[in-house]
Amino acid sequence: MRLKEIIVVEGKDDTTAIRRAIDADTIETNGSAINADTIEKIRNAHEKRGVIVFTDPDFPGEKIRKTISEQVPGCKHAFIPKELAKPKSGKGLGVEHATPEVIREALKDAQIMDAEAVEEITQEDLLVAGLIGGPGAKERREKLGKLLKIGYTNGKQLHKRLMMFQVKRQDFAAALAEILKEEQLNA
Q: Most buried by CB count within 10 Å: which residue of 43, 77, 170, 180?
């Protein structure tokens, strides 16, 4: 199966991992300081075939994702949870360490971020849900990001990411209920 969209990755090792999982073309950013030529390639690819941004689940990966979203709005985004992006040795983190199955699943779940989205879930909702500013908030955000397939975010980014992916209140509530149920079972 050949993927229509072009996948934006960070480097050569990511391209190798993608090609082990699926027949697809890639554009490599070669780091988080994306130059104008790379942005232009991404813009052209987005216009002609579509783009899926698929960066590592870490700070540099999020920086790349943010830069592309600002410069080339309307791209799809795929995410891998941190624990599925670690090598067997435990050192490092990235798309290149994910299994072909994990990569295919993430690409299948790719979504478009919408900067003009309507607020369905408020900051107050996040506070009440224990997703920001309290014990266990980080772990809950990690689980929420995985369940909603929007990737991990810090407390400040979560509200914006929920809006950008147009997460519906009922989907948010269902994911939160699953997280709280798991916490009760483990208590």
A: 77
What single DSSP character describes residue 54? -
Burial of 29 per CB tally in 10 Å (0-12, 13-18, 19+):
buried
Which neighbouring-strand residues pair with 7? Answer: 26, 52
Q: Please check whether residue 48 is in contact with residue 4, taking contact to mean a CB–CB distance below 8 angstroms.
A: no
Q: What is the DSSP string of 55-117?
A: --SSHHHHHHHHHHHHHSTT-EE----GGGS--TTS---SGGGS-HHHHHHHHHT-EE--TT-
Entry pTM: 0.74
CA gap 102, 105 in Å, rounded: 5
Per-residue pLDDT for 1 more than 70?
no
DSSP code at position 159: H
Distance between CA 158 and CA 131 in Å, rounded? 9
